[in-house]
Amino acid sequence: MADSSFSHLDADGTARMVDIGSKPVQRRVAVAEGFLQASPATLDALRAHALPKGDVLTVARIAAIQAAKRTDSLIPLCHSLPLDAVDLDFALQSDGVAIRASASTSSKTGVEMEALTAVAVAALTIYDMCKAIDKGMVVQNIRLVSKTKQ
What we know:
The chain is built from 4 helices and 4 strands. By secondary structure, the protein is of the alpha+beta class.
């Protein structure tokens, strides 16, 4: 028998979607962050909007928002959520791009997977659009910063 303390496993160890039907609707906000390590030349090209594939950070922002909206299609046991907002911030640093996403909903379950997915897809989009000039980029440190409910 499986450990039934895992919310996504039943008593027999079978994967299941958690029943949130009895939980109250609450405002929920999650913040996640990650980092894309890149070369100085790549960061200079990002700052100058001089990459051959276009405005990388704008495309990454749109990709991240789309990904957050589709998290339930990507992660099998996630609930479908009506997102109120998804916001992205990018900070170009000396060694890469810091990525921060927040997601909010008024729902019965948390929105942390949507925020994490937004960060991951933003990083992957930047990677994809810059890989022609930088083969050594590294996506790293994707993590949940906070989650709140009110």
